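User: Can you predict the 3D structure for this chain?
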Amino acid sequence: MDTEPVRFDTKIAVLLRSDLEPWQRLNVTAFLVSGLGTTLPEVIGERYEDADDVSYLPMFRQPVLVFEGAKETLKAAHGRALSRALPCAVFMADLFTTGNDRDNRAAVRSVPTASLDLVGLAVYGPRNGVDKVLKGARMHP
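Assistant: Here is the predicted structure, written as structure tokens:
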């Protein structure tokens, strides 16, 4: 069995707007990372099994780092993620008032890219690229 620590050349990161309520931070994070696992199979590890051979769903193969920043930090990070063509998921403030996926997608569709009122962003890619996208953000406390 290999005992060396696993190092990744990629990074999964979530950037949350710093003025969110605690329940909103959790909700936004869960929604954002769900997009990565459904479209980027390489981020998903193997199934888990306990000592009694009960099988559990696989999860991300690497940690998800959570950051926070002001509204302006989020807007700048979004622009940098798009300019680098990194896979990303977005969560707008308006999505707190919708109750289903169809309405969520319609709400995002109705707003031009530059006008999105972002409260969260998930991004995946090479470590150095994600680090550049997150410039100005700080680790979530």
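The chain has a mean pLDDT of 94. The first helix runs from residue 22 to 39.
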